Each structure stands twice: as structure tokens, then as C-alpha cells.
Amino acid sequence: MPSLRKKVAGFMRQLSISNLAGAVENIGQGEQTLRSPRSLTQDFTSGCFITRYLDGNPEELPIRQLGNFQENKDVVSAHTGPDNGLTTVNVQQRHLSINDIDIDYIDMLDQGEQYRNTSTTTAPTIAGITDWFNPHEMAYGIATTLYEKNPTNNTNNGEPIADCFGIVARSNSAILALADGVNWGMIKDNSTKASIAARSAVHGSMEYLNKALFCPSINGEMTTTKDVFIALLRSFHAAHSLILQEQGMLTTLTVCAVLPLPNDSNTEQNKYIACTCNVGDSLAYVYSRKTGVREITRGSHDIHCMRDMRDALGALGPVDGSNPELNNLTLAMTEVEKGDIVFLTSDGISDNFDPVVGKFAILPCHNSVPDSNVKNHTEGRSKTRRKSAENLRHAESGNSNRNKSNLPVVEAYQRHELTLLRMEDLLRRGVSGEGPPCNSAKHLCELLLDFAVRITAAKRRILEDTDLYYAQNKDGQLIQLSKQEQRTRRIKTLDKVSMIPGKLDHATVVAYVVESINSEYDL
């Protein structure tokens, strides 16, 4: 099987920026001088993820001209986490123009000499940024664990947190990235490697995009959304390469670039575009005071099909040898306005807004399949199965008494819509239901995280019961049980746990308020 590098490099060399521009101009004109995306796909029988994405009508992803953003290079805010976030990846990324067969396709071939003649900065940077611990009310991220604390060692299960986020905000643009380590609970001692994978993915993508978007002397000017999407795809290759270099495991990755559109003389309000690339089940959303919450990454999962929350759907990292699983890699874009909040979440946030996970709706009877059937159905995708299968197995269950329940039955598409409505209700009305509405990135992050913590609190209380870890002797002293006995007792509680709302996981959210930094935006 060809490696990711070979597939992407081969495709990129055939689709230069000029060729892409020509192909777009010839759409609908019957021109045959340039090869269509479909003919390119036929040449890549191995199923390169980029050709698979382009196998359709290119007009489905329209090309938009961008406004001037590359002159505003000064970073106003940069934030990463949890703890030290992406800065814990110690290996400094190689430069975009380094002569290396692994990444030499990233730059246009005619720009190699151009970079060699430019001067380099002397200030030390990590992923292109000098200070990653400069959060802002309007550019903010937060992460925590929803897992229970083990009373025998006073640490949370699932440590370290296998999520990572990063955000860089400039005066009229922002880059957001979020990764969620996959599969850490399946094999002992993999939690650290899943965390490394997430941090490496955010580090690698941020490193590339900060240079590609804001160093035109290195990678040329970005004038259209097409250029941005090419940069996003290349940043995913950089992320995957760094994961392999750091010997990490698997991770989802979602990256979003918020950039200005040209000023329209007919309107006073500036417009922006949010361009996203994602693989896995970490999702991107927009909250608008006018229209509510909408999902940007909706195309990465079938909202009309009940999905198994134990399957991340895709991941970077060594899924098959050194190759990733890019089954649901998706590009998407949406127009946003001043005051809109663009935010990314791990599934620890988004799944806890699901009406079935929240136990205020149930699945149709035809979706109630035994665990063994689900396992057999997804056997071929076991490597991207979610962590903590023990907890997730029961996140959607507890519906055995559905015939006696008065809860409404929801189909897959209704689950998706209700999830968005529940988010919108929280952001508009707050926890009390009486407001005030969310008005900053920090406020949004805190609201979403607080909701996930509250809805899973009862689950944690049950799993933190000392009776699951200790037994009393005749003298009344507590004696710690063996690991096997602790596990046996925990398993016996799962039926009880399954009846309680919420899903235990790592929970992360990062957000940016459009055109709010260095502006007169009224809170």
C-alpha cells in the first residue's frame, strides 16, 4: 500500500496551484486541456484521500476571494492546553523549504530559491509562535477530564488527558486546532502515546499554517479559499509526519482558519470565511446570535445514520503501518460575521449534548442491537475505536425498558438537530435559562465545559464509591481490593451507570469571536 507521503506528493505535483486555477476556470466550458478530478481519481487506484474528496463536482466547494490578512502578521493572542499543550512536543519542525523527500512537495518548486534569500527570525518560536500562554477573552480554549477519580491513588482514570487544543488570533484572522487522542484505553500504557499524538498533531498543523498563511515570501500569497484548503491538507500531512516522528498513537484532528473576505462597498459589515479540515469525530461549529448554532463539519459524518460513538471514524497516526485512516477526512467552509463565535469541540463535549446520551430521548427499536452485533459490524475498524469502551458501551444504552418509558423516540437526523438546539439554548439563555447570552470565547468554553461536567457528575459519584475499591475487615479497617476484584465490582455497576445521563471522556473546546480583537465590538 503506498504511503501517505507518496500518495499526497504525487497528487500535489500534478495539481499545482496554477493547474487548479485553470481547472476551475474551465468548469462548465467543456475544456479538456486539463485533467478533471474524476480522471485524476482513476490514476490513483489506491484511493488517495484528496482524489476521493475531489471525486465529484468541484463547484460544490466554491472558490472565494480573500481579503487582505497577510499584512496583519502580529499575533494578538495565542493559547494552548491542557497544561503546556503543544509546547511539550520537543522536536522542532523542519522548515517548509527544507530539501527532504518526506515533505518537499509542500512548497511550490519554483519557490525554493526565494526562501534561501530571505532572512530568518532570531526569536525562538514553537510552532511559529513565541508565546503560547497569552489567552484572550475572545480567543480561548479549555480542557478537562470527565473521568472519575480513583480513591486508591487520588488520580483521575484516563490520565493524562489525551486531548490538545491550540489557537492563534491576529487582528483580523485566527487559526484554531483541536485533536483528541484515540484508542488509549484499548492497550495498557497507551494513554501517554495518545496524548503525544494529539499534541503532535496540533503542533504540526499549527507550525505549517502559521508559516504558509503568514509568510508569503516562503509559500506565496494566499488569495483564495482554494489556496487555504491546499494549505490545510498539507498541514494534515505535517501533523501526521510529526506524530510518527514523536512515536505517538492515533488522534483525530480538526483545524479551522477564519479569514476576511473582500470588503463589500454595498454593506458596512465585514464578512469572513471559516475554512475547516477534519478527520475523526472532533467537530467544528458556529454560534450566531441571529441563526443559532450550526455545524461546519456536518459532511464528515452521516447525520441520517446512527453512528457508533465508540468509532472515531478516522484518525491520523499509524493506523495501518505508518498510514492514517482518512475515511471521513472532509473540507468545509461557511461564511461568518462579526460577533459570530467559531468553536471546535472534542466528542467529550459534543456527545454530552446528544439527547440519547442525555437520557431525554431514546432510540427506535430497530436501532437496539446487541453489543456483540455492533462489535462484529465494526471489527474492521477496531484500530480507530474510541477509548474507554467500558464506559462508552453504556452511554447510549439503558433503554431496555423503552416500552415503559414516556421519553420520545428520535431518529438519527433528529439527534443531530436536537444536539445543536441544546447547545444553542445553553449559549443563548445560560444554565439558569434566563441569560445572559454568551458574549465571549471564554464564556462559551466555560458554559460548554460546565454542562459536560454537570451532566456526568452522577456517573462519577457512582464510580468513585469506596466500596468498589475497598473492603472492611472484622476490625472495621478498610483493606484495598486487588485490581481484578476492583474491576469485577466496577463491571457490576455498569447497568446502574447506564441509566444515568452523560458520557465520561476527556472534554475540550476552543473558540474564537470573529472580528473582536482590536475592534470596537460591544460585549
UniProtKB/TrEMBL annotation:
<dbReference type="InterPro" id="IPR036457">
    <property type="entry name" value="PPM-type-like_dom_sf"/>
</dbReference>
<dbReference type="InterPro" id="IPR053287">
    <property type="entry name" value="PP2C-like_domain"/>
</dbReference>
<dbReference type="InterPro" id="IPR001932">
    <property type="entry name" value="PPM-type_phosphatase-like_dom"/>
</dbReference>
<feature type="region of interest" description="Disordered">
    <location>
        <begin position="371"/>
        <end position="407"/>
    </location>
</feature>
<protein>
    <recommendedName>
        <fullName>PPM-type phosphatase domain-containing protein</fullName>
    </recommendedName>
</protein>
<feature type="compositionally biased region" description="Polar residues">
    <location>
        <begin position="397"/>
        <end position="406"/>
    </location>
</feature>
<feature type="domain" description="PPM-type phosphatase">
    <location>
        <begin position="139"/>
        <end position="462"/>
    </location>
</feature>
<feature type="compositionally biased region" description="Basic and acidic residues">
    <location>
        <begin position="374"/>
        <end position="396"/>
    </location>
</feature>
